[in-house]
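User: For my dataset I need records formatted as: sequence, then structure tokens, nothing else. Please produce one.
Assistant:
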Amino acid sequence: MMYAIVRLIFWALIFVVVNYLVVYKSNIVNKKIFMVSIFILCAILASASAIIPVENLFVTFDTPEDVAKYYARGEIIGSVDGKESTLLILFNSQESSGSHIVIPRTQNGYKIPSIFTVKNTQWQAATFGTFQISSVLGTNDYYIVGIIISEEEMTIRDNDDNLVKTIAIWIPTSNIFYISFYAYIESLSDDYYLIIGDEKFVKSEWLLYD
């Protein structure tokens, strides 16, 4: 992804320039120790820059898909829009792994998510699986992303009788469905619930992970 490549190139150039100035232009006595220190510092700053997208100061994207192309790894296989954000479901075929990201929206377009975009909470409803609630900070947008392992495909509905989006993958070696589901929730309350198959799961009964 370009997001990581840009940071790698930027900090590599910084290191090369500093290395040149130290080796050829300075009178520092112990240049080797100094360069090792600079290398470690560049590595730390590169890691820090990965979680703080400075591009947001001067770049706005037209669509959440544009953000994903620049920032994330994997193919977009699902999406759902909130009032002030968009949830994207991704699948990385090279690693056979899935993920999701929440893209914040401004008046002018979409921004790269950061550690300040969402607060994630892990939950479990005893008999059907685990899931994550992502609350978009500074908004009333919430998203739920979960996983079910079942012997049959299932429909999922929420307390407003909205059909929750699902992606079902059949695992022939285990004779089960690996079902991921995702939905947008506005202003999550304790009486929110999901109906999975024929069972009802109320938020107040969900178990909160530490």
